[in-house]
Predict the structure.
Amino acid sequence: MKKENSDVNENPPEHEPVESPEQLPEVIKQKFTELGLPPAEKAPGAFYQWDRNVILENLSSNIEGLEITSVRKAMEKYDWVNEYFWGLLDPKSDEILEESVHKWANGYFIRVEEGVKIKDPVQACLFVSSGAKQIVHNIIVAEPNSELHIVSGCSTPSLIEHTVHIGVSEYYVKENAKLSFTMIHGWDDYTDVHTRTAVRVLDGGEYISMYVDLTPTKFLQTNPAVYLDGPGAKAELYSTILAQRKGYYDVGGRIFMNAPDTHGTILSRTVAKDNAHAIARGLLSGNAPRTKAHLECRGLMLSDNAKIVAIPELSAANRDTELTHEATVGKIEEEQLFYLETRGLPEDEAIKLIVRGFMNIDVPSIPVTVKNEVNRLLDLQGGL
Amino acid sequence: MSLLDIINLHAGTKDKKILNGVNLSIGKQEVHIILGPNGSGKTTLARVIMGSPSFIVYEGDILFEGKSIINLPVHERARLGLAMTFQNPPEIEGVKLNDLMCATCDVRNHEKRKGPFCDLVVQDYLQRLGIPHFADRDVNVGFSGGEVKRSELAQVFTMHPKLLILDEPDSGVDIDSLKLLGKAIERYVSLHKTSLLIITHHKYILEHIKPNKIHIMKDGRFVFEGGPEYLDELESVGYVKFLESRGITA
């Protein structure tokens, strides 16, 4: 059933916006519930885009200082948005970005004003019709001393047609602001996913990202770049991937410590089964004094036909930078299985428990509700 | 009828025979002690009883309540009522001790008993073993020697086995912990009428648990068997002299 790129529909039918989260189409609600997201009405704010159309946005959300709209509307409203658009990514740097310059439909614009702290997670969901191609360009701005947590779901209904999602994202975390971004992907064997994300963090700011994909995915490429451009800025990138079937998963993260006293952590867990091919990348770049970062890539092989390639990279351009990495790829130890089996668990249950445990990443800095969502998802889909 | 019968058991790895004709019979509510020098095959015997895939049974049989178990998978042996503590259990990252214990609680009647009942049982045993705050810890990750022994006991207790094999429950443990462990075992056994097979080098743990029989293993078989009255002599003179004075050399 493999189809060529030209088979995807770049002009899928239009979709009408809805008035409230309750009116979202059932197919969309159901898909995001499967991904562990709570109903949109429970979030302090939400943005839903279906193919090219924004179907739900809280332009003036109930919370003062939080703005959730589309990038196109934001551009009409504020001149300065143009400086943020392509402010961090260079459209000439690869074909995907170049294509998005001409063909992007819309995307979310989320901004939290100076000093405003929003503890509950805001939702940003992107939904692609089967057989369609979606190109979005997103912008998030966390103004100085603000705090914002976002849960983003991206999905498609599982029908056997070639589908493409391209997500271009530029996030700005200003002085002493904190942004956490939890992205949960739910794809299928026919979907290609390309994300291009860049984040700039200024003085004392903090960016935390958690990426989860436990679904079959035909092709996935994500390798966000975080630029720690202000002194004392911090970044933490976490990911958990269950690579399966014939999927190709190229997942990584890059942290550039360009200002003094900046810190970074990259932590990834990759489980590979069936015939999946997974690449776990990580790049730490220390370019200023008193910078420190650690990278940990761990892979668990469950099949002889799968493949995991861990590519940790450390790049130092300053004498006073400390970069460390730890990469391991292995299988489930026989002793672990025997141990759990002596406690009365059959082999398949013992494997499930070990894999579920392996994928467990404790991210201290995201809200408890988000942690619980991720844990629920891991319970549902991480058990193989 | 005895609980466990081991008949002329020969077993080992693919390349090396370790057990050379072990015979052992354990009745209900009996406590048996296996002693013997390092490398004599004590742990191998325990693992072969549980069905470790690392070993092959060359000859002989193992009966549990009269039925052969040598072809049963490990978890089915556990579900019949066999359990074993590990000397050096593996770390299982990301799996909370509480979750594992709830998944294996009262394993013989698990379907009937899981749920809130198990949460209580788990908390109770962790409390009794002095590690109530370990429920949320990853299994064996960063546990000290003494903590491992406590957690192992708490885990097998919640399973409610009929025969409990303790592989060196006292190694690397300080005197205070030893007392706590000994008392916990004593209390558990008297309450649940569990049979015990204890592999040990010390008699301290036996201050709380009165054995019916001791077995000394050497080169993969029992070379001496008798009552607990031999323990003091054995402790003072050591295996070599103890066996030599009885004309046992190999």
In short: The first helix of chain B runs from residue 42 to 50. The first strand of chain B starts at residue 4 and ends at 12. Chain B is about 35% helix and 25% strand. Chain B has a mean pLDDT of 93.
